[in-house]
Amino acid sequence: MLRRLTALLGDERGVSALEYVVIAALVAVVVIGSISLLGTNVSKLFSTVASKI
Predict the structure, then answer these.
(1) pLDDT by residue (tens digit) across 4-51?
(2) Which residue, 3, 19, 21, 36, is the most exposed by fewest CB within 10 angstroms?
(3) CB count in 10 Å sphere of residue 8
(4) Calpha distance 28→21 (Å, rounded)
(5) What does DSSP assign to residue 22?
């Protein structure tokens, strides 16, 4: 039983998958933040153009 537990703790195959998930989550947060900021700026630009017309 102890041998199986130490083998399970020493197995690092899932570590790389977890790292990829963390990287993907960080990329998603950056993309969502960028799109939100860009959307706000574009909305302000359209409002400015519409008021000048």
Answers:
(1) 767 766 666 666 777 888 999 999 999 999 998 888 888 888 999 999
(2) 3
(3) 8
(4) 10
(5) H
Instruction: Specify if 34 maps to a domain.
Output: yes
Backbone angles phi, psi at 4, to 5 degrees: -65, -40
| Residue 40 forms part of a structural domain | yes
Q: How many domains does the chain have?
A: 1
Which residue type does 32 have? Answer: I
Region of 18 on the Ramachandran plot (φ > 0 left; ψ -120 to 50 alpha; else beta): alpha
Alpha-carbon distances of 3 from 8, 11, 13, 25, 43, rounded to whole Å: 9, 12, 18, 35, 61
